[in-house]
Amino acid sequence: MELLEAMKQRHSVRSYEDKKLDEAKKAAIQKQIDECNRESGLHIQLVTDEPKAFDGFMAHYGKFSGVTNYIAMIGKKGSNLEELCGYYGEKLVLYAQQLGLNTCWVAMSYSKIPGAFQVDSGEKLTVVIALGYGKTQGVEHKSKTVEKVSKVTATMPEWFKNGIEAALLAPTAMNQQKFTFSLEDDKVSAKPGLGFYSKLDLGIAKYHFEIGAGTNNFTWN
Ligand SMILES: Cc1cc2nc3c(=O)[nH]c(=O)nc-3n(C[C@H](O)[C@H](O)[C@H](O)COP(=O)(O)O)c2cc1C
User: Of 100, 132, 164, which closes a domain?
Assistant: First the structure.
């Protein structure tokens, strides 16, 4: 499955089948995580067969069920940590979709289980991503318009519009879509809005934008 197709098919899934991750898929995700860690310097970890994080009041209140696998997004504290976690986490989310798995980004509705993952000194866990075989494929989210989240001074090039449309398919916390992409010459800048987790959302949306627009068409400002 192409990444563009994976982006269209991905929706958050909160209910999962009671089924272990296929060993080959697990190994493929681990390999992708290792590559992301090498490239970004993050300390992303795959947690499997761990039912406790999503077994508490918060998880049930948040309508999660059957979550026993998740990806812990961890890295060195710093002003760029959240955006980096968003960007590389979404890379893993779309890869999981390509493997036929479902996901949901989760900032609130889970408990931190001691020993399930390792947060070294100077590091922070930003968010986790639930992972597994969904009971459904989820549903399309309501979306803002292209105009609402973009700024261009001249006519909007096709590649830029494609990038924005891809960004609007991205998951954002509470579906807030509080980002703005601006174009000047062939330079694109992306700004987070005010809101919870908006820097994480921005990293996610930037990864989508790159896939939609094609990285050969522009450079980030
Ligand atoms: C950073 C981030 C944090 C999120 N945290 C939660 C959460 O705590 N609980 C939850 O049910 N969904 C959470 N979500 C999922 C969003 O609600 C979901 O992505 C959004 O409504 C858009 O729907 P979609 O992912 O199906 O496109 C989170 C999403 C992101 C990007």
Answer: 132
Q: Which of 10, 12, 197 most suits a substitution to test ligand 1, by most atoms within 8 Å of the C-beta? A: 12
pLDDT per position as a tens digit, 186-208: 899 999 999 899 999 999 999 99
Task: Tell me which of 54, 106, 129 to substitute to probe ligand 1's pocket, judged by most ligand atoms within 8 Å of the beta carbon.
Answer: 106
Q: Check whether residue 78 and residue 11 sit in a common domain.
A: yes
Cα–Cα nearest to 47, from 68, 17, 16, 62: 68
The residue-averaged pLDDT of 64-90 equals: 98
Global pTM value: 0.98
Q: Is 195 in the pocket of ligand 1 (CB under 6 A)?
A: no
Model pLDDT for residues 87-108, shown as the tens digit of each residue: 999 999 999 999 999 999 999 9
Query: Which residue, 71, 106, 132, sits at the end of a domain?
Result: 132
No. of H helices and E strands in the chain?
A: 6, 8
Question: Is residue 203 one of the residues assigned to a domain?
Answer: yes
The candidate with the shortest Cα–Cα distance to 217, out of 177, 157, 167, 137, is 157
β-partners of residue 181 are 150, 190
CATH code (residue 80): 3.40.109.10
Atom of ligand 1 nearest to the CA of 172: 31
Domain count, the chain: 2
- What is the Å distance from ligand 1's center to 202 Cα? 13
DSSP run (H or E) holding 159: helix 158-168
Domain range for 93 is 3-132
